[in-house]
Amino acid sequence: MTQPRLISGIQATGSSIHLGNYLGAIKQWVQLQQDYEALYFIPDQHSITAPIDPAQLRENTLRYVAQLLALGLDPAQCTMFVQSHVPANAQLAWVLSCLTGFGEASRMTQFKDKSDKQGEQTSVGLFTYPCLMAADILAYQAELVPVGEDQSQHLELTRNLAERFNHRFGETFVVPKARLVKAGARVYDLREPTKKMSKSASSEAGIVHFMDDPKVSAKKFRSAVTDNDGEVRFDPAQKPGLSNLLSIFAALTDTTAEEVALQYQGGGYGALKVDLAEAFVAFAAPVRERTLGWLDNRAALDRILAEGGERAREIAGATVARVYEAVGFLPDHGRSGRS
Ligand code: ATP
Ligand code: LTN
């Protein structure tokens, strides 16, 4: 029986996956690989939309693959690859960028946020980032895209582009659906709990990384910003810091934030923070060990990516061939096949 196809990606922009990435995305990826034909990739071409150090990007890409394996992705159950190993993604991105309105792209809130941060350095690549993301999804004819809430606008654009292309050039793309995560969908910075936990935050103090020494992470939980009234209650509007901790605790232990709140009611914040720190360390310490194990076996990582890349090129290459024909490009008889 064929399983429905699903795709998602995570940028290797830091040296470590953080807790927001895990609870907002990867935890679901691990579960979904069982019931879907899942493709997971590192969008390294997206990473150069911000200034990067080339050696660092290469190193981070490998570290991310190792962490994804340590967190539970299984190459026997899913396809893992690196975006730049599949030329079809960028080929399709160009076609899609020609279907995207300038105003439409200008409304992307992630572009507004990131271009504010990058200022004068903002590139055209950052602006067309959502077209490349749409290509990543549409090239694989994926039905489902598990992402955190912050990516839902890009998903909506992807759906619009698929429908627009199909309407203009004939049925070509599957119109994908986002699969947003509810509990733990948004993890907030431990120091600035009204901002999402993000690799690009200005300070490291509020971000919990899987590759950090677990003791460092435990301390970050214990010194998380909360409030002064001392009442344990799940109330994201009035008590963002505490509610963030309750949500994280709930997601790590597969319960609800309300239940955790009930458990710690009347106990003050101290006990909650200490127990949450412990729960995180119990989860993260073995993940870190397994990651280091994979990084010691570079040949195995290379093999996994080579096999994944081959499968990805097969699928995406076939889509681009159909797209090129549909938009009216002259067939290239000098080539044996399209990449
Ligand atoms: P940045 O904010 O610096 O662009 P990031 O930390 O958001 O990077 P991404 O690579 O953009 O990381 O995201 C990988 C996945 O993790 C995406 O599906 C995204 O929605 C999800 N994600 C990232 N941060 C959070 C968060 N704080 N809460 C929930 N999900 C998150
Ligand atoms: N933009 C996403 C990463 C990403 C992605 C994708 C996710 C690039 N291409 C395709 C899902 C499907 C992010 O920053 N989280």
Question: Overview of this structure, please?
Answer:
This protein has 339 residues and is mostly helical. The protein has 13 helices and 5 strands. The chain has helices at residues 19-32, 44-47, 54-71, 87-97, 102-106, 109-118, 124-138, 152-169, 214-222, 240-252, 257-264, 268-295, 298-327; strands at residues 5-9, 37-42, 78-82, 144-147, 177-180. The strands form 2 sheets. A 3-stranded parallel beta sheet has the order 1-2-3. Strand 1 (5-9), helix 1 (19-32) and strand 2 (37-42) form a beta-alpha-beta unit. Helix 3 packs across helix 12 and helix 10 (240-252) packs across helix 12. The model has no long low-confidence stretch (mean pLDDT 94). Bound molecules: adenosine-5'-triphosphate (ATP) and L-tryptophanamide (LTN).
